[in-house]
Amino acid sequence: MTKPRTTVRKLLxxxxxxxxxxxxxxxxxxxxxxxxxxxxxxxxxxxPPKLVRRSPSGKAKRRRCILTRREGTTDGMIRxxxxxxxxxxxxxxxxxxGRGLWLSANIAALEEARAKGLFAQAARxxxxxxxxxxxxxxxxxxxxxxxxxxxxxxxxxxxxGHDQVRAIIGARRAALLLQxxxxxxxxxxxxxxxxxxxxxxxxxxxxxxxxALGRDNVVHAALQPSTLADRFLIExxxxxxxxxxxxxxxxxxxxxxxxx
Length: 260
Prior knowledge:
50% of the residues lie in helices and 14% in strands. By secondary structure, the protein is α+β, with helices and mostly antiparallel strands.
């Protein structure tokens, strides 16, 4: 009778050791396969935090225009810096090093600041500006705005086509109407009147929209509410100071209007 008892004791002892070791596995090392799988499952099952989208105007910094001496958000201004060759450079992405010279985003303010020598006065050294500088800024602003359309297409927050745009506007799921400036006048007018309560952009040609979206003959498009739509509208407002806006409804920055 002693042998079965010793056998049972050995089994119980072995089982106790296995259980204790199994419990110590997560504490001893995190490289075990079982613990790794548990961590992945916890990460997948964990609900992501709710993202709260804020208006870009609410997050924009405030700067003072070197011409009007009024303070406003950077959404309606352009940052300039002095280059190493004493030339003025437009820092549209607001990332270049050096002292920033902020000016209202329109060609009239640019020409007046150039005539009065305000850039050299603010930079405290002589600066030069090319004659085609306003044209370069207009092209760069247009390219920045069109880049947002490509990102919106990848994100799936843009609809292209007359019927698709009309359907999304009727369902009140559109934040912005986009139409080619050289499209047929009557269809554009009907669509603009149908989308009377949202901003409308008609500053780009059919070729520009088709190239940005990778499709042929793009005349009508609509952006859904998103950060990309907000950034696109901000870039179009800045571009409106250098290019004809046509029948666009770009809105205005109410915060700047209160400051005025």
